[in-house]
């Protein structure tokens, strides 16, 4: 689906979660299970977590996908080095006024959002 739709977020797990949420009319999927051929990447794991799926079953470890050419970013992302080597991307928390404004927005709106 990634290649078919030219969408880097169209991994099988994310696509399945989107379709299930749409079909069931809700984002909380705690009565659902998801099966994946491989250990999920951080994006997919995040989607599984946020949808509150009760069970994730995967077949192969991430190393199996890496061995056939999939990006090995999982190790970099989990190291928490503050710099993602593969994409030459710096990862940094905002500081100063930008960070303060973001924190204030979340604080002021927390009562409005009850997702689950």
Describe it:
- The strands form 2 sheets. The chain has a two-stranded parallel ribbon. A two-stranded antiparallel ribbon has the order 3-4.
- 43% of the residues lie in helices and 14% in strands.
- The model has no long low-confidence stretch (mean pLDDT 81).
- The protein has helices at 12-24, 42-51, 62-67, 73-79, 96-109, and strands at 33-38, 55-60, 83-84, 89-90.
- It contains 5 helices and 4 strands.
Shape: extended
Task: Report the C-alpha radius of gyration, rounded.
Answer: 17 Å
The proportion of residues forming helix, as a percent range, comes to: 40-55%
Structural class: alpha+beta
- List the secondary-structure elements in sequence, H or E: HEHEHHEEH
Strand content: 5-15%
Question: What is the end-to-end distance?
Answer: 29 Å
Characteristic key phrases:
single chain; alpha+beta; extended; 14% strand; two-stranded parallel ribbon; two-stranded antiparallel ribbon; 116 residues
What topology emerges from the helices and strands here?
Layout: H1 12-24, E1 33-38, H2 42-51, E2 55-60, H3 62-67, H4 73-79, E3 83-84, E4 89-90, H5 96-109
């Amino acid at each position: 689906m990634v290649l078919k739709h030219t969408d880097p977020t169209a991994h099988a797990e994310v696509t399945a979660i989107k379709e299930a949420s749409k079909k069931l009319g809700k984002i909380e999927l705690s009565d659902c299970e998801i099966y994946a051929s491989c250990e999920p990447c951080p994006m997919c794991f995040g989607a599984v977590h946020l949808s509150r799926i009760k069970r994730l079953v995967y077949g192969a470890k991430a190393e199996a996908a890496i061995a056939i050419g999939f990006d090995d970013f999982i190790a970099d992302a989990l190291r928490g080095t503050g710099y993602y080597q593969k994409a030459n991307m710096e990862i940094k928390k905002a500081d100063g006024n930008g960070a303060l404004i973001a924190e204030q927005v979340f604080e002021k709106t927390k009562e409005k959002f009850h997702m689950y």
